[in-house]
């Protein structure tokens, strides 16, 4: 094998290489994909209630129970009476529910920058009214 062929193989490998960086074990993974001159970061979340599932967006909505999971802050956001609550504890209504098997909707990217996701709850209630 010539030196040129070896250089070509190494360059091809480097162009398609990706580095995986674990930020929090079991919860968040950052994958850096190298294609061309710029590297692209893709954040992948593995919530504690479904460590084998992969999510790419911040918010996961559970229409059957009308609450949210925040992949960034690792908290639940749910209604308690007339007040929206943020908690690291599972909402009481789903304590004995396997959330990994429940219907979930990963909210679109434009919601990733929204901290008060519950303000859009009226829209989210319409996502899948048949689940209720």
What is the makeup of the main sheet?
5 strands, antiparallel
Number of domains: 2
**Given the structure, what is the number of helices?**
2
Number of strands: 8
Q: Which structural class do you get from the secondary structure elements?
A: alpha+beta
What does this structure look like?
It is built from two helices and eight strands; from the N terminus they run H-E-E-E-E-E-E-E-E-H. It is an alpha+beta fold and 132 residues long. The chain folds into two domains: 45 residues, no CATH class; 76 residues, no CATH class. The strands form two sheets. The chain has a five-stranded antiparallel β-sheet with strand order 7-6-5-4-8, with no helix packed on it. A three-stranded antiparallel β-sheet has the order 1-2-3. Strand 5 and strand 6 form a beta hairpin. The longest helix has 14 residues.
Record keyword descriptors for this entry.
single chain; 132 residues; alpha+beta; 5-stranded antiparallel sheet; 3-stranded antiparallel sheet; 2 helices; 14% helix
What order do the helices and strands come in, and which of them pair?
Layout: H1 3-16, E1 18-24, E2 28-35, E3 38-45, E4 59-62, E5 67-70, E6 75-80, E7 83-87, E8 105-106, H2 121-125
Antiparallel strand pairs: 1-2, 2-3, 4-5, 4-8, 5-6, 6-7
């Amino acid at each position: 094998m010539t030196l040129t062929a070896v250089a070509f193989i190494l360059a091809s490998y480097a162009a398609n290489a990706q580095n995986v960086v674990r930020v929090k074990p079991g919860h968040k993974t950052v994958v850096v994909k190298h294609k061309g001159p710029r590297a692209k970061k893709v954040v992948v979340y593995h919530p504690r209630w479904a460590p084998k599932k992969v999510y790419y967006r911040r918010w996961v909505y559970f229409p059957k129970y009308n609450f949210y999971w925040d992949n960034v802050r690792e908290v639940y956001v749910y209604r308690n009476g007339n007040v929206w609550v943020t908690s690291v504890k599972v909402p009481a209504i789903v304590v004995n529910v396997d959330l990994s098997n429940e219907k979930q909707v990963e909210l679109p990217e434009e919601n990733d920058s929204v901290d008060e996701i519950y303000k859009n709850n009226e829209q989210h209630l319409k996502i899948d009214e048949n689940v209720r």
